[in-house]
Amino acid sequence: MKVTLIGIDLAKNVFQVCGVNQACKSVFNRALRRHQLMAFLAQYPDVIIAMEACSGSNYWGRSLKAQGYQVRLIPPQHVKPFVKGNKNDRNDAFAICEAAHRPNIQFVEPRTLEQVDMMLAHRIRERQVDARTTLINQIRGLLNEYGIVIAQGKESLKAALPDLIEDAENELTERARVHFTLLHQEWSAINEAIKSSEKDIKQQAQASEGAKLLMQIKGIGEITATAVVSFAGNGSSYKNGRHFSANIGLVPKEHSSGGKQSLGGITKRGNRYLRKLLIQCAWSIIRHCKTAQDRLSVWVKTLIERRGSHKSAVALANKLARIVWAILFKKTEFRAV
């Protein structure tokens, strides 16, 4: 039986490789070591290769495409319904083959090295920002044990902390002052690390044609532009702007039956990080829309009068997502008026 598709369950060292024929009947399903994979696949030069879009899939996708294979990366949530019986590597590899045969499955393009570099910087910065937030919350909680409460905002705490450590009138003990000094130094080190990551992101934005086009859109800066490029590439994986917007969870969820349509809040599916950035971009436009006269600001201004600022922010983020896709896909400049 001729093998037409091979599904690979990726791992660090031992991969499960399943080959099926045109009827999706298993021909082989075996484990291979990492160094054996490419030599084994060379026996099947005309097959389609399917993998889950997981850690390492971008590397293998790029490598296999360079060898002339057609590669299909499948989001894991689309593979899970096809796993039959208990979860194991054999069943997972066969489930990948079954999912790849379905006509309505949306496949993912492997990220380029440029996209991976951008994603790397964003993931590191996101972890650093989360670490800083955790540290600030801990400092506030520990200060409260000594009866010290500081106004909201990280800048208020940062400005007050050195004075609190030096103030002999408060209830901080000598040991506590030593610990808070170390926490303050840790905070400063995290701030420097975040600045370094943001500097790298800005340099990548200036070197990317797609990011430079996106930064012409009102409200979108280097961080959002590079995050979009790292996630969507040139936009060719999406049918249209609504498809891209739906992919990041900015369209209403539906619960309709009996011919009666029922829409709710946004689905919140897909890339949470990118959705958050686009909503922050929308809020930056809303804050200055009263005095602005460009078409986007006028549109959101009239929407706020009817629906309020919070719903308008989500609607504007949805609109920005569609504009972003159009600019990436068509490679055109943004026209504000």
UniProtKB/TrEMBL annotation:
Residues 6-146 form the Transposase IS110-like N-terminal domain. It comes from the Bacteria. Coiled coil: none annotated. GO terms for biological process: DNA transposition. Residues 211-294 form the Transposase IS116/IS110/IS902 C-terminal domain. InterPro entries: Transp_IS110-like_N, Transpos_IS110, Transposase_20. GO terms for molecular function: DNA binding; transposase activity. PANTHER family: PUTATIVE TRANSPOSASE FOR IS117-RELATED (PTHR33055:SF3), TRANSPOSASE FOR INSERTION SEQUENCE ELEMENT IS1111A (PTHR33055). This is IS110 family transposase.
